[in-house]
Amino acid sequence: MNPLSFNAKRKTRNEKRSLLLALDTSTDKGSLALAEGDRLLGEYSLHSPGTYLQHLLPAVEELFQAAGRALPDLGAIAVSQGPGNFTGLRIGLATAKGLAWALGCPLVPVPTLEALAAQVSFQPHPVAVLMDAKRQEVYLGVFQCPGEFPQAQGEPQRLAVAALPSLLQPPLLLTGPGLDAYGDFLKQHLSPEIVWASPELRHSQAATIARLGRLRLEQGLAVAPQQLTPTYLRPAL
Questions:
Q1: Within its chain, how far is the Cα of 110 from the centroid?
Q2: Is the dihedral of CA 74, 35, 132, 155 positive or negative?
Q3: What does the alpha-carbon distance between residue 94 and residue 228 come to, in Å, rounded to a whole number?
Q4: Cα angle at 180 between 178 and 181, to 5 degrees?
């Protein structure tokens, strides 16, 4: 065999393994991203859970076309697992499962709270992530983020917003879309020494799901499509 031909085939296989699609439909601000190794090839935004069913798969096709790639080139899929918006999670996970089945590629779940913490990496203090759980409740996750990848400090919780002032104490960085939902209450009842993340960092992004998904894939945390289940932390409303 011609050595150049062999190297070209090996490069093609390596490129396929390195191409990763990330889906995040866990909140009202969804997105999807395509990454090759450490390089982000493209990212699209989806602005309403009501449009996910109609627009998610067409957006996947557009993303691949814009990047000059094809679906059979895909090496892995990472998807935000929750907690979060019930409808969004179901659509995102069902889409990820269907693509993984059809393409025979690995499927990697990424906890949504972890992805939100990863938006504020390299922090000296603990990071508390809040998501709106409706009915005056939040999903809470606490992380250490000394580097690029968050380290969970215990299991995620669902609790009343009114319980937060006794739990959240400085030094602390606060982030997540729950700040938008309950900002007025939190500003009145939390210590002014607690630092709030900038608004643009409070929402999960598919590019972050891709980064965490690749790490989890390297750690052997891929699952079979039939094993992938959403993290709800509460019954559907």
A1: 6
A2: positive
A3: 9
A4: 65
Pairwise CA distance, residues 225 & 207, whole Å:
22
Domain ranges of the chain: 3-111+204-227, 114-201
CATH level 3 topology of 114-201 = Nucleotidyltransferase; domain 5 (3.30.420)
- Rounded CA-CA distance 34/43 in Å is 6
Which ranges of the chain does DSSP label H, i.e. alpha helix?
3-18, 49-67, 86-103, 112-117, 164-167, 178-189, 206-218
Lowest mean pLDDT among 3-12, 21-30, 156-165: 3-12
SS3 (DSSP) at 148 = coil
| CATH number of the domain located at residue range(s) 3-111+204-227 in this protein | 3.30.420.40
CA distance 77 to 214: 9
The per-residue b/e assignment along 166-179, b for 16 or more CB within 10 angstroms, e otherwise, is eebeeebbbbbbbb
pLDDT at 158 over 70: yes
pLDDT digits over 121-143, tens only?
A: 999 999 999 999 999 999 999 99
What single-letter DSSP state applies at residue 108? E
CA nearest to 140, candidates 81, 148, 132: 132
Look up the pTM and report it. 0.89
Residue with the two structure tokens 């709030």: 196
* Three-class SS state of 154: coil
Percent of the chain past pLDDT 90, that is, above it, reads 82
pLDDT at 48: 67
- Judge whether residue 229 has pLDDT over 80: yes
